[in-house]
Amino acid sequence: MLSRVASNVYWMGRYLERAEHMARYTKVQYFTIFDAPSLQDKDFALRSIINMTGIAYDQSQEVFDEQEILLKVGLDRSTGASILSNIFMARENARSARNVLSDELWEYINSCYHFTNNYDPQYFKTRGLYEFTREINDHIYMIKSCLFQTLLHDFKWVIINLGIYLERSVQLTRIVLSKLSDIEILEADGRNEVLIDYQWTTVLKMVEGFDIYNRLIRRHQKHLTPSLFILKDSTFPRSILYNLEHLHQLVERVGRWEHRQKELEYMSGRLASKIKYHSICDVQDMKKTLSEVLSELYAIHAEIDRRLFHNTEE
Amino acid sequence: MLIDDYKVKENFVDEVFTDPTAQQFLYGDILEEFSRLSKEDFGKLNDAIGLTFLNLGITYAVYSDDNGGTEKIFPFDLIPRIIDYAEWQTIEAGMIQRNRAINLFIEDVYNDGKILRDKVVPKELVLSSKYYLDEMKGFSPPEGIHTHICGTDLVRHNDGQMYVLEDNLRNPSGVSYVVMNRKIMHNRFSAMFKSKEVLPVSGYAQRLLEMMKSVAPHGMEDPVCVLLTPGQYNSAYYEHTFLAQEMGIELVEGRDLTIENDYVYMKTTAGLIKVDVIYRRIDDLFLDPEVYFEKSLLGVYGLMKCYAKGNVTIINAPGNGFSDDKAVCAYVPDMIKYYLDEDAIIPNVPTYICDKPDDLKYVLEHTRELVVKPVDMSGGYGVTICDSISEAELEKVRAQIKMDPRRYIAQPKMYLSTHATYIKDTQTFEPRHIDLRTFSLMGRDMDYVLPGGLTRVALKKDSLIVNSSQGGGSKDTWILKK
Question: Tell me, which fold does domain B352-412 have in CATH?
Fold first, then answer.
């Protein structure tokens, strides 16, 4: 496979995954505003959206312009941070690798782009957020279904999935980290326990694990905490451990077609074990561990980029 | 109804309505099928098909700085153009004959130069073309083939006869539309195809790949073929991806290729892989910054050296452009006589070469009746249809010709035939002018013409310029056996 094309399909996977997480995060976080007891807490939720998505917004302002923030997150073309830009980039990467993708996969990615690109900004910022983010997630479910069903599960498929699982691991880690920061702020302000617990509920909703988690604790895992569930449940597809293990399996599969990537295997394997066998004590400890996970994920990305996409230049 | 107010244009052949017998045989079923649809239903169908093209990404985009691309589809007209099989057989033979003669001409010009010595084609005309490449002198590509892919444009004049308007011997485009138009017609109008024998077009990519393999360096058995694209911002990028995908070959950009010891390699995740045949969709002068435009980022440094050593085949061969110069094109019937000792099966549109004193005199005296074209431009650019311009504009055209006669040719105005075409604004069928771009392939022991080709239609009322860059659309083209 052409190195450039391999790199492009990998990034296609990453951008798709990023857009999906941004849409879900924004939707869940925004609608928590309405459960918030005070105006100050509404800005708290918006601040969290700004920090998580990385959009440029001056947070020293006295009053946050909610519509402007939403527009920047959803449909701003001028920054790489918006959902639209991420979908645009996913589509551009797919376009440059068009001839190695299936027609169906390309068509779904392309129509997802047209949906986003043609979305009316006026409607979006006043009433469309829920519908927009829902649709984005639906589109991406369709794309992933196509990815699974209409491509050979060969080297190219592994590369796309490396992008997806690496990005998902990054996003999940960042979501939890961002909530840990929120919790720290609330604790420092001496806010009540209920509000702090509510932050974990929000995280569960952001990873679409709220219902599953509730079912689990109601039945037989009474002592399972949300943080343990999100970090270490190896059967939950949006737990960090599940994704790190999957990432490692994909790295191992690369060796079937290309030279074995021993260093990469070592890095991804070690990272999965780190979470699997780590006993987490408190918020501080969790923050430190997850920050390390994030750095190691970035190092894995750098290694993938160097070994798989630029190997001919050595 | 859609067709009730259809008025055939006086002085033009209308492909659907001029000949009632042919109409019944060729178009009877289709007109019946369409007459069952209300204006609203037809409009809906038309919109739905537009959306299909958009979602398939068969579009061209104008990108702005803020990523806010507006994308347009090339308009597709739902009413197919139908050509009788008997007439097609003549066209097909004509295209094969033409391509063979042109190929022999290019090979001769770069090697023996017999035709120039015999003064059948003026030497100056050839050597003064900016597309004549010195690097090709004395070089013969594998199997002696230069024009592997030829796109020839035909029009039907009001005498009912087909004429050749021009040849495209560099990078003729549009073939993906032929295949996709047919696919979409199959999906939407399957009933129409059930009782008919329409020659299929889906085999084109397979034939293209066979052709590529047949001209590999040193007759090698299983060559690695690639398609070289300028990249995804090129207006024909869709076609490049389509062809690469259909052939199952890599779609490479210049930066994916590298040269070592005068061989071409592509950079893959498994290391370097040698490339043997390159179907390039970039122009000659961008192919190799070592030889041509040194700032070209599209090509590959050192490619021409590999080519000259016979280590890679380039399709089409570089240096063909002088032969699709419109002034040289006028000599194709003479080439056919010279090389094949045959008469041209499909005649050329009569052409006055302004570089010839007698022709120039005629052109300057009869400018008003003529169509003046630059010899080296495509896409309908620079064409002046002189009967529709002001006296002052006409004077300007004359002045331009006088200043640089070599740059211009003139042709009598061709009365391009019309075809019923759906017009969205009026929600009816109206006559619009059409032409036909044929696609011919030439490989070792292989001559192939894609059945039908691309019918291009000028959507602007009364316009005779069918190019997509000038507001043209396309139609599915059927070769109807029975």
Answer: Dna Ligase; domain 1 (3.30.1490)
